Amino acid sequence: HLPGVRRKIGPVLEVMMPDVYNFYPGTPTDGSVVLPHFKTIRECREQTAGKRVWYMCQAFSNRHFRNGKSTYSARYPNPEEMRLELYTAVAAGANGILFFVYNDHVTYLDGKLRGEEFDWTLVDQWGNGNAAYDEIADFGRKIVPVMPSFIDAEAGDFLKTTPSAGHELLIGQLRNEYGTLIIAVNPTTLHEFDGQLDIQVPPDTRVYDLVTMSEVKGNGLKLRPAEGALRLVATPEQYENVAEWINNRRQQMEQGIVDIRRAELAAAGFADGKASQEWLDAEKKLVDIRRQFGQINRHLTLPKTVAKAENDPEYRKLHDRLIKYSTRYF
Fold first, then answer.
1. pLDDT tens, 229-258?
2. Which of 111-120, 147-156, 261-270, 293-302 bottoms out in mean pLDDT, i.e. has the lowest?
3. DSSP one-letter string for 268-318
4. DSSP code for 149
5. Angle at the Cα of 303 (from 300 to 305), degrees rounded to 5?
6. Are strands 154-156 and 206-209 parallel, antiparallel or unpaired?
7. 3-class SS at 58?
8. Model pTM score
């Protein structure tokens, strides 16, 4: 994340993995702290010998301990901020996206050992997600199957794009032998984009939506706060190839989920993949219990709760007891 270091080591790297964490207590939540990441990713592409960037998104809140007191160093991103992180990274030409951290249930992240406590992460110790995690899942279903077709595409400004008057969009473009992919991102977390996007379309090409897998008629564009749209400018033949690959990847992802579930049931003794109703009822109860533990933990790690609890020696005992009982239970 240090520009000077990137410039020095980039020429000998195949892949660069910048981790730019900007969600601090008091920083604005309108998306303005995310938008500079577009330029950072583009610079990393140019500074890296392999022209490949795996962008690391902030997915944690944490506290640092000093003199017996904790200070909040980072806040957890809200779902719209996470959405903007993901679409901004794609628009800038990131070849991969990672997240820090999945959870802190590993010894080297123990706050007692390193003076840093991660309170909120992508999932808690019981596997419960949150609204930001749901945004990643939605992005995974819609966008991840698209990107392998453009993973080593050239980034630049190839076609003229014009948003409707009075509207702003963050525009990124990627080009390879399959056409020009335009990623248009609503740059704010506060309101929808409901306007137009005019695209300079070369002769013999058309515009296709790679989320809905359909030809785009007209120039109207509607986006949720912080959401992006993927428009491919290509010939019909180019689009047919790309569409087939994307649909195949989506089917493979769906089948992968089915296979994971069958493996879970087989491990539980249901070789035919059909669990008994008794087992399904027990599974649901276990999920509910995990959720309850997660809700208690989220309450205990809210900033206002922690601030109050630091003056109460019983708080740490209560939190430790929660983890202990949960460990015993599961």
1. 999 999 999 999 999 999 999 999 999 999
2. 111-120
3. TT-TTS---HHHHHHHHHHHHHHHHHHHHHHHHTSHHHHHHHTT-THHHHH
4. G
5. 45
6. unpaired
7. strand
8. 0.91
Alpha-carbon dihedral 235, 244, 151, 180, rounded to 10 degrees: 20
Q: Give Cβ neighbours of residue 225 (< 8 Å, ≥ 6 apart).
A: 31, 80, 83, 186, 188, 189, 190, 191, 192
SS3 137: helix
Separation of alpha carbons 209 and 182, rounded Å:
10
Task: Please tell me the distance from the alpha carbon of residue 299 to that of residue 117, in angstroms, as a whole number.
Answer: 15
Structure tokens at 115: 């003076």
Asked if 157 contacts 200 with a C-beta cutoff of 8 angstroms, the reply is: no
| Locus of tokens 């390193």 | 114
Q: What are phi and psi of 230, to 5 degrees?
A: -110, 115
Tokens of 92: 């800038």
Distances (CA, A) of 109 to 62, 106, 119, 219: 11, 6, 11, 49
State the burial class of residue 248 (Cβ atoms within 10 Å of its Cβ: 0-12, 13-18, 19+).
exposed
Which segments of the chain are extended strands (E)?
15-16, 52-58, 60-66, 69-74, 96-100, 116-121, 154-156, 161-163, 170-176, 179-185, 193-199, 206-209, 214-215, 220-223, 228-234
- Interval 137-196: pLDDT, tens: 999 999 999 999 999 999 999 999 999 888 899 999 999 999 999 999 999 999 999 999
292: confidence class by pLDDT, cuts 50, 70, 90: very high
CA gap 323, 37 in Å, rounded: 36
